Each structure stands twice: as C-alpha cells, then as structure tokens.
Amino acid sequence: MAQPATSISARLPEALKDAGIAAFISLALFVFIVGIRTLDDPGVLLLEPRPWLLAGAVGSVFIGRLILNLFFWSGTEAEDALTSALAPVGRAFGRISPWLTPALVAFAVLLPFMPFTDRYILDVSIMVMTYIMLGWGLNVVVGLAGLLDLGYVAFYAVGAYSYALIATHFGLSFWVSLPLAGLLAGLWGIILGFPVLRLRGDYLAIVTLAFGEMIRIVLINWYSLTNGPDGISRIPRPTFFGLELTRRGDPSFHEFFGIPYSPLNRIIYLFYIILALALLTNFVTSRLRRLPLGRAWEALREDEIACRSLGINTRNTKLTAFAIGAMFGGFAGSFFATRQGFISPESFTFIESAIILAIVVLGGMGSQIGVVIAAIVMIGGFELFRELEQYRMLMFGLAMVIIMIWRPRGLITSREPSVYLKEKKAVSGDLVQEGKG
Amino acid sequence: MTTLWEKNPILRVSHLTMRFGGLVAIDNLSFDTGRNDITALIGPNGAGKTTVFNCLTGFYKPTEGMIQLTHDDGSEFLLERLDDHVIARRARVARTFQNIRLFGGMTVLENLMVAQHNPLVHASRFAIAGLFGLSGYRTAEREAVELAKHWLEKIDLVDRADDPAADLPYGAQRRLEIARSMCMKPLLLCLDEPAAGLNPRESDQLNQLLLDIRDEEKIAILLIEHDMSVVMEISDHIAVLDYGIKISDGTPEFIRADPHVIAAYLGVEDEEVA
Fold this sequence. Notes:
The complex is a heterodimer. By secondary structure, chain A is mostly helical. The longest helix of chain A has about 35 residues. Chain A is globular, with a radius of gyration of 26 Å. Chain B is globular. In chain B, helix 4 runs parallel beside helix 8 and helix 7 crosses helix 8. In chain B, the strands form 2 sheets. A 6-stranded mixed beta sheet of chain B has the order 6-7-8-3-9-10, sandwiched between helices. A 4-stranded antiparallel beta sheet of chain B has the order 2-1-4-5. Chain B is built from 12 helices and 10 strands. By secondary structure, chain B is an alpha/beta fold. The interface between A and B is large, with 39 and 47 residues.
C-alpha cells in the first residue's frame, strides 16, 4: 500500500481509522455476497470460497476510502461537499418552478401527438401517470395528514377488483363502474381506518402494512368471488361515449369518425383517461388543502394535541384523509384493471405500496409537483435503465442514497401556505413536521 | 366565606381527584371560577396544576369528581364526561400549553384559521360547498380572516401574519397561542403558564392583554402561573395547590398573607404553621 506524503501525516491516523471502519463494513457486507459462490451441481449445492476476490473488494474499499480521506475530503465534510455541489441544481429548480406546472401539463396533453411518440413511450407514460395519481392520492394521507400508510396498495386492489367484478358480473360500463369502485375503496378506507387510526407512528405503519397484506391474501383465497390466484380476465375496455376502440367494435370509434383504424387510438385514449383522473386528483387535493378540512389535516400533522384543544375531532379528520386517499387509490385501481384487461393478486404486493410511498417521500412530503418529478424519475428512470438488467437496482439504490444525503426531506421541501394576508411566502421545509401518525 | 365567584360561577370543580396508579396527583379539589374573573391557580412545582387543566379540558378523565361548566344562557356541561374536542367545541373551553404547541410549519394566519375550524367546516358544508367554491364559504372565510386579523392587531403581530409560526420569537409565540385560543371564541380561557420565559416588558404586555380579554370579551380566564407579579396584579381570585390539595383560596390580598401559602412556598415545617 502506498504511503501518504508527510505533509498530510497529521490527518493520517484519522484517515486510517475511517478507512479501517469502511473496510470492516464492506467485509461484513461482502463476505457472503462476494466471498462465497454457490454452484448448482446436479443434486448438491457446492460452496466455492473466493478469498482473493473478497480481499480485493475489501482492499479497494480501504485504499479508496483512504485516498478520498487524505486528498479529497477535508475532515468529515463529505456530505457538505455533496450538498454544496448540488446546491445550484436546487436553486435553478426554484427559479423555474412557477412555470413548471403549466409546462408539464401542456407537455402531457400534447405528448400523444409528438413526432417521437410511439407505443412504448405511451405505455411508459401511462404507467408513470398512474403512479403520479397514486402518489397524489397517498400524499393526502402521508404528506398532508402525516399518517404513515404502508398498505396503500390495498385500496388500489379494492378499486381494481371492484371495477373488474362490477364490470364482468353486471355489465356496467367503465364510466359507471369507476365512481362505484372509487366509493367502495373509500368505504374500505373508512372500515380499515376506523380501528387502525387509534394507533400512532410506527404502530400505525405496521398495522397498515398488515392490512395491505390481508387484502391481498383474501383476494388469493376467496376463490368463489375473486377467482383466486387465477385472477379476473376479460375486463371490459373503456368506451368513448359508447364507441368501442377496437377493430370490430359495434359501434366502433374509427368508423364513427371515419378515420383509419389504429391500435394506438386505444392507448392514446387510455392516456387521456389517466391524465384526466390524475388532474382531477390534483385539483381536488389542492383545493382541499385550502379548505378547513385540508388545513386541519396539516395541523394534525404538525401537532395533534393542539388540534384536539382547538375542538377538531381528530379521529374523523384522520378518517376523511384516509377515505379520500383510498378513493383516489380506488380510481387508479379501476384504471389499472381496465388498461390491463386482466388482474390478479400478484399485481398488488407490498412492493407497490413501497414504490408509491417512495415517490411521495422522494418528492417531498406534501408537495404535488414533487410527486410528479419523483414518479417520472423513479418509474421512467426504471424503464430507461431496463437494458442494465440487475444493475438498475444498483443505480436505484445509488440514487436513493444521493437523495438521502442531498435532500433528506425530499426534492421539494418548502410548503405553500393555504391562506395569506399580504403576501404568500413559502414555509421552509425545516420547520414543517413530518407527523407522528 | 361567601364571595363573589361562588354566586354564579362559570366553572365549578367539586371533589376532583386524579390518581395515576398509586400517585394521587389531585386530591379532593374543589374550587369555583367566577364569570368574567381572572382566576389564578398557583402552587409549587408538581402541585398538580397542569393535571387540573388536563382534567378540565378532557385530556385526562378524572378518577372522581365533577366539573360543571355553566354558560351565560344556563346550559350546563359536565366536562368530566366529554371528549376533549367536544369540550373545546361545545362547552367552549380553550386552553394553551406550558410548552407552546403551535403549528410551527404553518403561518401565523393559518394557525388562527385552524382555530376557527368548526365554524368554517360548517360553512364549507363539510368541504363539499368549499370544493365548488360556493359563495357561502367564501364569506365565512373572509370573516374568519377578519377575526384573525383582529387578534393579530391585539397581539401586535399583523406584520408577521404570513411568516411561519416557528420563526417567531418566544414571547410572540406565547401571545400567538393565546390569540389562537381566542379565535375559538371561548367562554373560559385556560392558560398554562402564559408568562413563562417572558421578559418584564413582555410580561407587562401580557397582563394588559389578559385584562383586555376579560373586560372586552367578557369571558373568564383561568391561569396557572409562577410569576407572582402577573398573578398578584391581574387576578381577581387565587386558588393555591400543594401536593394535589387545595391549601388556600381567596383574593390576592388574602393569599399574600396566608401562612399556609407562605409555608408551602418557603418550605416551612408543618408544625410551625398555626
């Protein structure tokens, strides 16, 4: 190992210690992942130890860390260096943010007619838009009311199954079933919320997590209603005022308007449906934020005891947040069912809840535009790196770590006041509470 | 001793007892709070004053006893039976906290708007009319902002209405918490150590604010306070608590001379008290 120059010898002991700790952590991490390789010999599982590779990995962490400590980092200000390096990005974002919302909406509306738009881009956009809507829905619960809900996918599932069952059994159209599915999901929000919302903080998180799993397990096992793991297929597609967007519809969209048939028509139509649903979600939540109900949600997140002393019925207020969030989840679920045409419990696993929650947290709790950016980055970025196969998880992890260091409270941290006397000043995110359930 | 506050009290606490396991925090406490009086509840640290407040405002359910609140129109509320938010909303009891509980991430004005939650929710028809921007709600909101502005002028914070509450200096936060309680239009205002941490000038302003509230709003104030300059100057009636037991009850002049009170505060042996 190369000995460092004498001019930095003062920092050497500290740097050696730090590098030693890093090497030890990497040893603990790598010993099973890199140090041992499993070989699948017919009939038996063989373990092949790879000490040199392990030594190489740990050694490179040690040397790399030492070099960084001695030559690049002054003291322990690694985080500060990264923060200050990325600060201009944040400032630039602050300047463009007033134009960002209209620009994004305009882009979304025009997207299907852009020259570069193809089936793939539309499919990804629909997926991103679904997650934006889910993020906005969950934002009511987590971002505004400060209730950590790890089982949001339950309401997504209730919405999807409600639509699938109503449509296949009663033959109701998408536009009739959609509000019904939303209402059912909202009702389930109240039913689940009623016992759960007595709990706070970590306990609430665990119980909502359990409820999310319970819904999925019920869906798997209630074979007579949900068709169990086989799922529900042949879910009707949405119609355009009764016109079907298929080649041989009766009546069909392309014949009615006298345009050539294109399978893209249906995708474009789906895109506009989810865009409209997402914008509706955004409109309702932004509006509610400025109403006493939304203000009470935020007050609840700030200080529940003070809310009670001001005569706010905290249980009912939490329930409304839960129900409204669940309702939007239900709408998104119906859309998911009609888009896929087939649903099964496998689409509603915990990882979905985790992704939606990650979008909300990454975007900055309570920020509407933050959710959009986070959804585009997370879902879109995930698709973009599809060629990287398993390494995209690595990229994803790296991105998460950078965000945690740079913006521990999410991309957009400032809070916009719901009412003002003279001028609207954004509230710094450092002052805003995250809520304890 | 029949005194003014016993004739037609707004609040009558009778035989209030609060036990936490083996600890008796309040023991058989009875006192009255006069209508339109400033009543002070004093006593050494750990005497059970804040526990009394928590019982009054429904945060604790008392083990025994009755807490009776009578409005001017004669309607009566038994506070020990009601939930905290019902006490605030229907019995119209407002309170502040020893460790200030503002909504720090919300602006000063928003804090005062949250205090008017119930009338506003009603005006917004449980958010449905508000969602469609109907005029009934807009009028109600304008009135709520006016009320908030009135109290901001009272506490001298109009210029900071759009700043986050957590950015205010300590004294201003104390005043804001009182203003927030007043936005609920309470009939009984309970203040838990409103002068704690204030400098003498702020303390004087607070006295004036409390006297103004009593005289202009015609409501009753019940306060816990350690700062004797505040207590003696503005109180109409003082009750003294020590180890959960009421040791004295009377006018400030009476309390000042009471040997029991002096003993409790200065730590004189029991035998020396006549």
